[in-house]
Amino acid sequence: MGHGHPHTHDAAAPPDPGTLAARRKANLLLAAILLPVTVLTLVGMIALWPSGDRSGVTVVDPYATAPGVSFETGTVQRVETETCPSSQSAIDAGGEGQQCMVAYTEPTSGGTLQPVEITPEIAQSRGVEAGDTIRYLDLSRIMPDQPNTLIFVDFVRSVPMVLLAVLYAVVVVAVARWRGFRAILGLAGAFVVLAQFVLPGLVEGKPPLLLGLIGSVVIMVGVLYFAHGFSARTSTALLGTMFGLGVTALMAGWATDAAYLTGVGDEDTYQLVNMADTISLSGVIMCGLIISGLGVLNDVTITQSSAVWEMYELAPQASARRLFTGAMRVGRDHIASTVYTIAFAYAGAALPVLILVSLYERPLFDTLSSGELAEEIVRTLVGSIGLVLAIPMTTLIAVLVVKATGIRRASDVTVDVAGGEPAMVSSPPGHGTAVRYPGGDGAGASLPGGADDGGAPVPVPAGKPAEQPLSRRARRRAERD
């Protein structure tokens, strides 16, 4: 007996003319919204562009050295625990020398091995091993009575960091191919915006809320379109991202003041106070609250936009409510996983602070609301609020766009048949609805009226009764599940 070969819609097949027309219409609709917003953002960026004048900034370079002092690099050949070279003057005076870790290092510039004194904190944490490349401070010229005073400063990490960066780029391009390569270039462009616009603007005292919002929008416009291409899906995700950024900016502006985030508890931000009078530490924190959630926000909006478009192109007859409900199932899973992602990312980066604070004998709430933790907790909460609200908004925008544009094409759906394999229902425009069964001759009954006969029963051959449709209550229960 011959076997029928029903054809279903193949997501990998080239889109039909109806789908292409719908996508073009969606692009025009979204462009009418996004172009004015983008132009306004660029105008704001031009108005806030930093002048580059740093005459009022006094920078103390921590790597600057006094005359006669120099930074040197070398490779450790062996490590000993012995009398510290810096204790020689005390020994000569009849005192007792201290014991410390000494790394005998071959200078990169050449010469004999030099005894480099390792600081106690490095000796107690990781230590120094033979083969390590280190940077050390040479104080011999300004301390002639102690010719071997060489103090460890830091490790030279250039080689492993470059190798990791190259490996990361290779893995991304190998898996994501051209899109991954474009994403890496987009990331480089984002850092250019931060380095040339946001950071100098903060130094010159520009409005931090506008700097963070405008800079973030410019970054997202460039990154999304460059990495994902110009499409209705990308534009929908961009609109959702802008909404999330707006919510985050409003929450950041309120939370910075309401939670008394001053930034003076951090050593790096405290140094900024003495560098320039124009730098506002609370403004720096506010701008950081906006920028910190960009990556995750971009991730969820792209996912939601793609979910809606894929669902609609596979089932264009689905209602707007059904599309929204189905896509939000994906969104809720994403929300749940993202909450853990943000929280654990902070916990992993702040383990030393968490350990230190946990040793204090203070009530838990006092500890969480202290200056050491409050800023990071507020950053996590503000970013999460904008992220969570961006998911339903992106989903709603995507559903409205796909429904406003509409796809008018032939559709293939399946009908469950009791006691057999699913039947294939093919609905060419202007024709009846034909039913085909795998294993049969491909023939089937037809419905008069064409593809728009929504809700009409599909006739089936004798002996193969169609499965009864679910009741409204059963459908709601299935949607909840």
Beta-strand residue fraction = 5-15%
Biggest sheet strand line-up: 3-2-1-4-5
Average residue pLDDT: 76
Q: Extract low-pLDDT stretches.
A: 1-12, 408-470, 476-481
Class by alpha and beta content = alpha+beta
Oligomer: single chain
- How much helix is in the residues? 40-55%
Encode the helix/strand succession as letters: HEHEEHEEHHHHHHHHHHEEEH
Number of helices: 14
Q: Major sheet: size, sense and barrel closure?
A: 5 strands, antiparallel
Characteristic key phrases:
OB fold (Dihydrolipoamide Acetyltransferase, E2P); disordered C terminus; elongated; YibE_F; five-stranded antiparallel β-sheet; three-stranded antiparallel β-sheet; 14 helices; alpha+beta
Question: Care to describe what's here?
Answer:
Among the domains are: 70-156, OB fold (Dihydrolipoamide Acetyltransferase, E2P); 187-405, no CATH class. Helix 6 packs antiparallel against helix 13 (371-405). Helix content is 54%, strand content 11%. A 5-stranded antiparallel β-sheet has the order 3-2-1-4-5, with no helix packed on it. A 3-stranded antiparallel β-sheet has the order 6-7-8, with no helix packed on it. It has helices at 17-47, 88-92, 120-125, 158-203, 208-228, 232-258, 267-273, 281-291, 294-314, 320-349, 351-358, 364-368, 371-405, 472-480, and strands at residues 70-83, 99-107, 114-117, 133-138, 150-155, 411-415, 423-427, 434-436. By secondary structure, the chain is α+β, with helices and mostly antiparallel strands. A hairpin with a 7-residue loop joins strand 6 and strand 7 (423-427). It contains 14 helices and 8 strands. The model is unreliable at 1-12, 408-470 and 476-481 (pLDDT under 50). The relative contact order is 0.10.
